[in-house]
Amino acid sequence: MLKKLTPPFVLLLLTSTAGYAAQESSLSDDIVNQALSCADLVDKIRDSDCIAPVADFLKGGNLSLGATMGAFSVNLKVKNEKTVVGKMGGENSWAPHYSINTRPRHFDGSNFGYDYSFTYEQSATTSQVITRGGKDKAIDLGTYAIGSIIATQVNLFYSIGANDDSPAKYFTLAIGVGLGYGSVKGNTYLTEDETNTVCYDAATKYHEGTGSIEAVSQSCKKTAYDLWGLGGSGRVMINYRNNAYNFRFELTNVNLGAAAKLVTGKSDYDLSPSSFSFTAAYLFDVF
């Protein structure tokens, strides 16, 4: 009955579709049966021709994930002068830490060597600092400052145990210098500007404990900034690995002053942002 009612080209289409579906089902089963584990997939990628140009650079590299605790400060200065008119800082804050590190390379089989890191650092503060008589006092005026930098870093190290018969168990001490793209964003009341006597007196009274936050915020000029440019960083690192456990600890100083000075040509102020932090991270082998 179906052959009498159905045109020949429709029967041909139905037959072809059924055959294709059966073939597709068989192919899907083959793909599932031949699926690679994550470890096997990484091995395939590592050995493939497409990654060959950078394989030596990536082999032995790792991903560093951790947390950073540090202090971030920003000083606003009258342009082309050393007079500070506003300060941010005075508190410690937490931030996530990310970096990608290349394989360590030793000099002629010695314990000395070098590697490269690609890092992201971020610091922030919501405290403004009033300084009188050489003493700082933090105040919450609703102001803030955020600094971040993405940098390429060269690290020189001395390692004990990484270049012997037990390469998965070692201790390393390193120093690094980085250069990259930095940004600084925030706003600040100019509480240190002695030319604005009403503001300066209000901030002095608060510092002495006789004034109020409202008097400071109402009397002082507020300036905003959103700057970017070159930034630099330096750090001291300790890396300890014992087979599967791989930890790194860092003391880092990030200076974004170059970033600020590059882009404040149209401003009345120069910025001197910087941070000092401690980082604890775990290193995951990538390739």
Terminal Cα span: 64 Å
CATH class bucket: Mainly Beta
Gyration radius from CA atoms, angstroms? 30 Å
Could you name the ranges where pLDDT drops below 50 across 5 or more consecutive residues?
1-28, 261-266
Main beta sheet: 8 strands, antiparallel, barrel
At CATH's second level, what is the architecture? Beta Barrel
* Proportion of strand residues: over 45%
Question: Could you give the count of β-strands?
Answer: 12
Helix content: 25-40%
Give the overall form: elongated
Structural class, from helix and strand content?
Answer: alpha+beta
Jot down its keywords:
alpha+beta; Lipocalin; eight-stranded antiparallel β-barrel; two-stranded antiparallel sheet; elongated; disordered N terminus
Short account of what is shown:
With 287 residues, the protein is of the alpha+beta class.
What would you note in describing this structure?
With 287 residues, the chain is an alpha+beta fold. The protein has a single domain (54-285), classed as Lipocalin, CATH 2.40.128. It is 25% helix and 51% strand. The chain has helices spanning 2-5, 8-33, 38-47, 52-58, 197-208, 213-219, 257-263; strands at residues 62-78, 84-88, 92-101, 105-106, 112-125, 128-132, 135-139, 144-160, 169-189, 222-242, 245-255, 269-285. The strands form two sheets. An eight-stranded antiparallel β-barrel has the order 1-3-5-8-9-10-11-12. Strands 6-7 form a two-stranded antiparallel sheet. Strand 1 and strand 2 (84-88) form a beta hairpin. Helix 5 packs antiparallel against helix 6. The model is unreliable at 1-28 and 261-266 (pLDDT under 50).
